[in-house]
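Complex record, two chains
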Amino acid sequence: MVELKNVTKVYENETHTTCALDDVNIKINKGEFVFIVGASGAGKSTFLKLLMREETPTKGTIIVKDYDLGKLSRRQIPYYRRTMGIVFQDFRLIPTMSVYDNVAFAMRVINTKEKVIRNRVPQVINMVGLKHKAHSMPNELSGGEQQRVALARALANNADIIIADEPTGNVDPQMSYEIVELLTKLNETGTTVIMVTHAHDLVRKFNHRVIILNNGKVVADGKIDKKGGRRRAAEKSAKKAEDEKAPADEEAVEPEDCALEEEQTPEPEGDAAPDGAKTNTEGGEGQ
Amino acid sequence: MKGANLSYLTKEGLRNVKVNKLMSIASISVLMFCMIIVGLAFIVLTNMQSIADSIGDKNVIIVYMPVEATQEQIDALDKDIRALSNIKSVVSVSKEEALQQQKEQSDYSEELWAGLDENPFPQSFQITVENLEKFNETLEQIKKLDNIDAIRENREFAEQLYSIRTTIYYISLGIIAAFLLMSLFIISNTIRITIFSRRLEISIMKSVGATRSFIRWPFMIEGMVIGMISGILGFLIVWGAYVLADRALADMLNRIHFSPVDFFSFAWNMLGSFLAGGMVIGGLGSFLSVGRYLKEQSYDVIEEQI
């Protein structure tokens, strides 16, 4: 479904070079639910940008479904994006459109027939539990409800892969739980879900695969032990490293040089953002 | 593009004009203001030209033939003059017509005129030149023709008139060009601001897989509609201003024997230019401005409208 082979992404500007992802290998199978965890500057945004084909890798190949993203032409990109649903932390609803129209908008702009839209939109709005709010405007909704609208929009075009970038970042803990529960339900119907998050408690609560990124490298990949007490060795070391840093520290991590080939121990850094905190400081990736 | 698409995109473009009222009003105001200025400059130019032309028409070269010229000679000279280049009009004044004119203009009694044995007035031609710049050249050509007794002309006046006309023309053209440039600059910035405030929409469209042309069309239609509205309003205001100015200045203009150019002699051309210009500026401005945001990564769009 999603496969990154030896992917390196380097951002260059006049003054310095930043290595956002360094020889990353990830394989996500169809129907999986994966949490991507990591501190600011760890490479999560770059990972998402590569999947959304907003960036191309400096080295390596990315295959999503049958698309080789490095070889996609500009013309093909929109058609590739139609196969996935993207949910952003800031919801990105159009404030002048009702819930119904926000969802329908995603279908209209890819030229779906109005008859299909009339049929599908109520279906997905119902799926996210907002049937009674279909004609409300976004400013009349709570953060959690807005995120559910965004999710409905991501589902409207029958995407079989959902990419969620910190969907619970602007939502209270109870709502966060409900959103991940909703994503899990979707996942049970066969949709692949890739969710970037800072919320460790959610990761612990839902027993899905976790990929931990640190300094552009995958430092851990696997499921948390069901008992919740013990983690796999790599996860443990990564968590320990994170804990050593001050919990509220959201500063970007100094980027590593890609040329450094030797194994690195994860550097201590802050990843323990409290729930609901906005952690959008990806400055370490040099963008 | 399929019919259904076009109808959706047009509907969306129109909806955008309505929903983004404030920015639409701002764009329309700027575009309309620029059109009014250009329209007024055009009207001033047209009237100045009309004044210059009316003076220019009085600037004729009068060619007198000998009194005894035969009809054959008259016809031959008439033909020769008309054959010259740079001739705008030739009015032939026959001996009889000249006598008649004199009779009408003078206070002498009919008996006095009756005392004349024969008509003492010669056949003449009143020639207007097309291009005042070539006045001397044309004059020299006329002088070379046969059977000419005398020529009356005012070279100095012709030259002055030519320089005044040229100055008016270039000053007006300069004003129009300066305002067109200024308006293009202001309009492109207004459109840029309008579209900047819609980055969210563009980012969503991109992330759900809308094609570039599908993203661009509603913005272009919106720009064209704004251009059209500006064109119509600008035209109506220029029209109103012209009627008011005509009324206010009617007395003064009458005194100098000048009647302003009829508005409807150029009205439809002006409306057409305003509509076409507005649609091109609005549509092209939107096309270019959206292009800038199409390159932007939807991931990086700053949350600003929520």
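Note: Residues 245-255, 260-287 of chain A have pLDDT under 50 and may be disordered.
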